[in-house]
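#lab-general

N.A. 3:47 PM
ok so I finally got the sequence cleaned up, no stray characters, all 154 residues accounted for. can someone with queue access submit it? mine expired

B.Y. 3:52 PM
send it over

N.A. 3:53 PM
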Amino acid sequence: MRARAILHLTAAAVLFAALVFRAAPPALAQGEESRLWTGVFSEAQVARGKVAFEENCARCHNPALLGSDRGPALKGESFWNNWENESLNTLFIKVRDNMPPNLTGNQLEPQTKLDIVTYVLRANEVPAGSAELRTNPELLDAIQILKKGAVATI
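B.Y. 4:20 PM
back already:
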């Protein structure tokens, strides 16, 4: 009876481990190009993000994402200088929790704010793919923001 219980516990532990490892985002080997450049969001998501950006962010960051006296540029060297080597989750959390400033910051759903992030990435020439990016912290943490050709360190 005891051996049977141990066998069932062992089988359950193996099954649990298999499910956890299968669900975990694939880790990058150091020296690989960032997953960011493999198309981790869709063009439809970018289009939704563009509309949300124009309605909620352009007044401070400029419709062309070039910045103003009210908000920094989100395109070009300014973007890369601020966000290169960070995880995509770090950028998402900044937008989700702090944008727009001086307001509650929660008037948009987190997924809408992530759509805005995809628009900003696309404006910085990051390619779209076919999948929608979701507000999954583990997945977003596994995607490093790097310029094209740079190698990942996470």
